[in-house]
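This part of the workshop introduces the protein records we will be handling. The question running through the whole workshop is how a given chain folds. To make this concrete, we reproduce a full record directly below:
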Amino acid sequence: QVQLVESGGGLIQPGGSLKLSCAASGRTFSSYAMGWFRQAPGKEREFVASITRNGGFMDYGDSVKGRFFISRDNDKNTVYLAMHSLKPEDTAVYYCAGSVHLQTPRRPDEFMYWGQGTQVTVSS
């Protein structure tokens, strides 16, 4: 069992940067591929990024490629999402998730552990 807690969300102006963190409980964090998803009101949950167990490979959704960067620190049991050049359409609740898949999963049903989410609002 893995418990995930996101932090770092808030209100940010368009063009700004924000870094989200997701802290995982337990001693098996390095056994899981990790991902970030987001969900805006009235929309489906959208894949943002994922990273392999050892951090060697990353994958990104088309809408954030080149602006968002996922990383992890297995010693700290934490995965990060650095977000740059933020746009109003990036406004959503951002969720951290864990998966036993070996590669970089993209679908929500490939992840079995989820955090409660953190709100990111991009507005002037």
Summary: The longest strand covers residues 92-99.
